[in-house]
Structure formats: C-alpha cells, structure tokens
Description:
The complex is a heterodimer.
Chain A: E1 4-7, E2 10-14, E3 19-25, E4 29-37, E5 43-49, E6 55-58, E7 61-66, E8 71-76, E9 85-93, E10 102-103, E11 107-112
Chain B: E1 5-7, E2 10-13, E3 19-24, E4 31-37, E5 43-50, E6 53-57, E7 65-68, E8 75-79, E9 88-95, E10 103-104, E11 108-112
Parallel strand pairs in B: 2-11
Antiparallel strand pairs in B: 1-3, 3-8, 4-5, 4-9, 5-6, 7-8, 9-10, 9-11
Amino acid sequence: ELKVEQNPLFLSMQEGKNYTIYCNYSTTSDRLYWYRQDPGKSLESLFVLLSNGAVKQEGRLMASLDTKARLSTLHITAAVHDLSATYFCAAGPYGGATNKLIFGTGTLLAVQP
Amino acid sequence: EPEVTQTPSHQVTQMGQEVILRCVPISNHLYFYWYRQILGQKVEFLVSFYNNEISEKSEIFDDQFSVERPDGSNFTLKIRSTKLEDSAMYFCASSENANQPQHFGDGTRLSIL
Lengths: 113, 113
C-alpha cells in the first residue's frame, strides 16, 4: 500500500531564505504532484512530475523527482510572505486503474518578514 | 479558466440525516473524484468515477456513501445516516485523463451535529 510522508510538518522561515520540503513515498509510483492550499481554500496544482529526474520550476518554487530514491523535493528560493501556505505532495500508485492520489501530511510554511 | 464548482459551501446536518454534496466538474474532463479532509489533517481519497461507474474506492467509502452522475454535468456524493466523524471538508476533483493533474473545487464543509 502506497504511503506518502512529508517533512518537515511545519516550517517557519524568514523572507529571502532558501529551504527544501521533502516528500518520500513507500512503493513505486509513476506520478507525483505538488499542491498548495491556503487556509480554508481548495488545493491548487503546482507541479506534475512523471519521470525520474524530472525538474519543474515556477517562480521561486522548484520541484524534482527521484524515482529510485522514491523522493521528491520542493525547493523554495528567496522566500516571500506570499508563499505562506500548506504544501502537499501526492503520489499515484504505479499502474493504478485510476488517478487516485495519496496525499502526504502537508507542510505548513510560514514566511516571516 | 474552467473550474470545478461545488455546492453548498457549508452544510450543517443533524446526525443520522442524509446529505447530498454536489459538484460540477470541468466539462471536458472524464475522471471524477471525491476526497475529504478532516480539520487539520491530510487529504484522503474516497472514490474515483469514470465512464459512469466507480473505478476505485477507499476503505472509508463504505455502504454509507454513494456517488452518482445524474446528468451530463453534475457529480454527487450522498452520505446516508451521517455520523459525527463524517464532519470534514469534502473536495470534488476532476481530470482530463489519468496523468493530468486533478483540479479541485473549493470544497463543501460538512458539519454534523
């Protein structure tokens, strides 16, 4: 059974600093997604990673995937307050019949001025 | 940009009553999903729906739950005989195909009294 774990659960960082959120998954997966959730809001798709070595970047966020290590990272460069939110990674079981997603526990990111 | 819409945004129901949560997926999407998020916890998969039938469901999705696509646009989740532990945010999502990211609605906050 696929399990997804993230760390850290909570991240307080200062504006301008860099940090990385880690996402480990327990069994083979062929799909890895990153979502952002603002308080009381829905989930916004950030990145889709479908192959080993995939790297995607959007603004100050960069996501990568290492399928051999079963690890994805979300790197934040020069954080700004607007990035404060909860970030979830989600994986899809390999060869699954559908696109069901197993979510990680989430990382609450608080960027302090 | 097309979006998934959910109604109502908040539903308050007495324990033991039935509720129906409604969703309108993005029009050209073929895969539909329900997830739930208990306050402060991670997002959990409930059920996926494709080609007018359930394609996969989780252990949470027991006989108390059912889904239906009554017409060409709506996708509903029915919970019979609600329990206190059903209180959560319920998200509907849709995707164009199995690898594309799922687009989430704003959710229905279900409160069981």
